[in-house]
């Protein structure tokens, strides 16, 4: 499945963010009304546990933990409290672990004092890998195919591949696009026809200027979601590898 996102800088952040900027304290929310997105990511050096809590669904108010509630993550005997992290659009809770190998298991507990209940998600990291092709700073013409290759393939897991492009428009503005290929078979290779991508066929593009393309490959496993969370809550662990500064000629 392919998904395309479009934005013109400098409005990229507001265009891409679907989250509410409002915040509600957790003491004021019933447990069954808390939507969660709990995920683990590793870039190969360590791993991060991140928990996002919203009111009712993905687009509801951000939920900030009251002093009586807590989020904790455990890897084996190592247990850490998730610390609050705030940016312009979102509130989440994070912890960093040294562990990042295949089959590392993470147990994330949300302790709710008012309801006297602990919600538990369990996640397991997939096998690490490296991007073998293309290479950083490599150049391609729009008429070519982009062949992505990675190591340690042939697992039971799936991959998502995201392309992020920055191109110049004829009026001098800068345009960003993101296109995502979801649930890719983990067979070590994905071929993308660059000329078939909408991000490189917009008639408003300045074809005298090359576009810059960044690549994100994610091998993932879905985790369990405690059934006391609101419907649609998510849980996922992924190995992520990035590649930047690929040049795409539009001429």
Task: Briefly say what this structure is.
The protein is mainly β. It has one helix spanning about 10-15, and strands at about 1-10, 25, 35-40, 45-55, 60-65, 70-75, 80, 85, 90-95, 105-110, 115-125, 130-135, 140, 145-150, 160-170, 175-185, 190-195, 210-220, 235-250. Residues about 10-15 have low confidence and may be disordered.
Provide the residue-averaged pLDDT. Answer: 92
Name the beta content range.
Answer: over 45%
Number of strands: 19
Using only CA atoms, what is the Rg?
20 Å
Helical stretch count? Answer: 1
- Main sheet specs: 10 strands, mixed
Give the helices and strands as they follow along the chain: EHEEEEEEEEEEEEEEEEEE
Summary keywords:
251 residues; mainly beta; ten-stranded mixed beta sheet; four-stranded antiparallel beta sheet; 19 strands
Description of the structure:
It is built from one helix and 19 strands. It is mostly beta strands and about 250 residues long. Strands 1, 3, 4, 8, 9, 13, 15, 16, 18 and 19 form a ten-stranded mixed beta sheet that branches. It has a four-stranded antiparallel beta sheet with strand order 7-6-10-11, with no helix packed on it. A three-stranded antiparallel beta sheet has the order 12-14-17, with no helix packed on it. The longest helix is centred in the N-terminal third of the chain and has 5 residues, at about 10-15. It is globular. It starts with a strand and ends with a strand.
Which helices and strands occur, and which strands form pairs?
Blueprint: E1 2-8, H1 12-16, E2 23-25, E3 34-42, E4 47-55, E5 62-64, E6 70-75, E7 78-81, E8 83-86, E9 91-97, E10 105-112, E11 117-124, E12 131-133, E13 139-141, E14 145-150, E15 158-168, E16 174-185, E17 189-193, E18 211-222, E19 234-249
Parallel strand pairs: 2-5, 3-19, 13-19
Antiparallel strand pairs: 1-16, 3-4, 4-9, 6-7, 6-10, 8-9, 10-11, 12-14, 14-17, 15-16, 15-18, 18-19
